Amino acid sequence: MISKEEHILLHAEKLFAEKGFEGSSTREISKKAKVNVSMISYYFGSKEKLFVKIFEVRMNESLTFSKDILANDNLNEWEKLVTVINRYADRVKTLKTFYRILQREQLSNKNPHIAEFLKESKKGFLAIYSELIEKGLEKKIFTKRPRIEFLHSTVSGTIFTALNTLPVYKEFFEGDENYENQYFDEIKIHVQNILKHLLGYEENI
């Protein structure tokens, strides 16, 4: 059972993805969420603060999960890296609305609070990748040290492009109802294969 605040956030996220921040009103959000418009002011203060809150929640979810994986002593560094990336791909697939909003905000860069959230999130993932790779090299799980910037760009760029181009691919290849699930499953394998090459993982097993 989600809270009233989470309920409003979910419906606002869908509306922002559909109409953008400027095109969405608090009245429309309250109608979509089936709550009184005053509830938005009560929980968030304003439409802008509600918008920022969506980013705060989603960014924190990703980083918290990744840090928990980092602390899991039952997995080696390769297994941790795969778990983090698979989770990211699954989130992009299931939270399409949010990631479309995120891409739009990255391009417009209008809101300084959101820009800061995005910057800190990227820095958080860079730190996670750096730690995993350094430890993997120390343990001789990996044999190569790629630039972390390029590794991060490869992972996020591949998965984001996969999301954006999915409708075109599905139409071109006349995909059925299972196309999307199979597509994302294979994207995860594709990214893993790239990382094996970048990290020299296959050379060490």
Can you characterise this structure?
The structure is a single chain. By secondary structure, the protein is an all-alpha fold. It has 2 domains: 1-45, Arc Repressor Mutant, subunit A; 54-199, Tetracycline Repressor, domain 2 (Orthogonal Bundle), CATH 1.10.357. Helices cover 78% and strands 0% of the residues. It is globular and about 60 Å long. Residues 25-44 bind DNA.
Number of discrete helical segments = 9
What top-tier CATH class of the largest domain fits best?
Mainly Alpha
The percentage helix is: over 70%
Run of helices and strands: HHHHHHHHH
Tell me, rounded to a whole number, the average pLDDT.
91
Radius of gyration: 19 Å
* Total domain count: 2
CATH topology of the largest domain: Tetracycline Repressor, domain 2
The number of strands is 0
Distance between the termini: 45 Å
Structural class: mainly alpha
CATH architecture level-2 label of the largest domain: Orthogonal Bundle
Sheet with most strands: none
Low-confidence residue ranges = none
Percentage beta strand = under 5%
Overall, the morphology is: globular
**CATH homologous superfamily grouping of the largest domain:** Tetracycline Repressor, domain 2
